[in-house]
Amino acid sequence: MTDMAGRWRICGQGIEWDVAADARLPHEDHLEMSGQRVSLLVRYGVQADGGLALKRRLVWPSLRTIPNNTHGSFQRDIADEQVPYVETRDGRVIEHPVRFRLDGVLTVHSRTRCGLEIVREIFPTVETRAAMERITITNAGAQPVSLTIGNPETTTWGRGCNGVYAVESRMDKSGTSRLEPGGRLVIGWTLSARVVHEPCERLDVDAEFLRRRARVGALTAPLQLETGIPELDTAFHFAKIRAGESIFRTRGGLMHSPGGTAYYAATWCNDQVEYAGPWFAFTGDAVALEASLNAYRHYIPFMGPEYTRIPSSVIAEGFDIWEGAGDRGDAAMYAYGASRFALTTGDRTIAAELWPAIEWTLEYCRRKRLPEGVVASDCDELEKRLPAGKANLCTSALYYGALRAAAGLADDLGRGDAGRRYEAQALELASAIETYFGRDLRGFATYRYYEGNEVLRSWICIPLCMGLLARATATVDAMFSPFLWTENGMLSQEGDKIFWDRSTLYGFRGAFFAGATDRVMPLFRQYSARRLLGDHVPYPIEAWPEGNQRHLSAESALYCRVITEGLLGMEPAGLHSFRFTPRLPAGWDRLALRKICAFGTRFDIHVESQGACVVRDGKTIWRGPLDVIAAVRLE
Questions:
Q1: Other Cβ atoms closer than 10 A to 218
Q2: What is the CATH number of domain 26-216?
């Protein structure tokens, strides 16, 4: 159990909530789990009378509604009258939960007053339009019990772009069963949707349960983090699940999408292109790599000779667009994300395919420069929720990061002239960013977010993530000062109540990359423990108060990047090389990240007090001191 315990505790590679030990009841929480054709949102907890609270909403991204827009994924709340129930001669069985477990599956252990013990294992299927529950009923009493399954089959109807939709609830057992003392009954419950003329598919709950376990195992096997700090290792483990599971099979191919009942079968220049793609390049996961490559491909048809802005998102399974916020700096997001993704995969074929798009988006940004040398955009990824002026720090800093990454990619693709040009442009832009955005605010020599901005903003962290460190010390001080820092992370803006985990996670990454390791690690541990073990678990969230703290997927990818690009300071330098700065936080004996699948190979990083090493195939291929920028070639 971690010393930063909340409502939950760490148990193996999962977390558990012991209801009997919890004096803060009633309590409910919500969780999202996804497969390739369904997303399952579960609200669960304990009611005031000790009874089980359990509600389900299902989303089917490939079943489109009318209008077929950003939010046009068919979805349904499962009403009480659709839920099967168990009854005995004494009436309907009421479940009283004693323990909840999360480990890629939601498991609920309950007892009843009639001596039954009920375990529900709740999960989405990996490849079908179904969510399932494996319900195990055990007679823990001394007398036989006669059980009847009520409401075993129901169907409701909907309508959308694909036709009439049938939403079906099916139990694989029904009728009456006699359960002897110690006897056990296992029931499979399937919730699914289909177009009315499609065949009704009968699924085996045990087989689908094993497939879900296997997919979770595949997502968590790469990049094994070993810090000796349970809340960090476990939070990283969970973030890999949420980042990687929210990938949907659509008419436009596999598409990674945020989720949250709102954003499916679509891709965004920030969430997928900038945030998630560069993370997936470290994992080697074939599904995630294909989805990322599809995200980059979906924007290429919009890169025309007139250099009109690309859309912010490609929606409706890749067959429509959304650009309601205008130019959010999407070209800078794309250039940065695509360059980092291409470099980190180490795949020359992918790099060559994406190179023209990277060139186009860099040229678009160059053409959008103001006379002061920074890049104009209509807003930023917050889409005008907060002011961003005519040019904001985020867009220009991303453009700078993209230029540096593209320069390394150009060299490996035999385009040295382009690489030298991008390096020169990056130097000019760095100077322009310093002149235009560099300011003293609240006594900190940090950055203003836009011309006229006079309050601290969370996105002052962005230059640090891109390697602009001239104002690093004061910027870290500002980020973690009472002006911005709260127990929930960084406020979006000084004096406000709104926070977004994405800027908090960028902030952690930038602070670690800048070398503020010992200053920031206690706060990162507190944040990780709160998200993993607190009242709303187990993943990073989107925002508050917006969105009810949804577990959007790309935020988990950003959490993972705090470790790779922040704590370890990893920065791709070429298709088969990277720079990193090995650091060991105060009080730590070691740090290891094993099974990194990047730069065309697989390797481990080990950091100890006497130095660091990179190991491949059991052999040390690089060894060096701590706190020094190192260059590692993996060819």
A1: 17
A2: 2.70.98
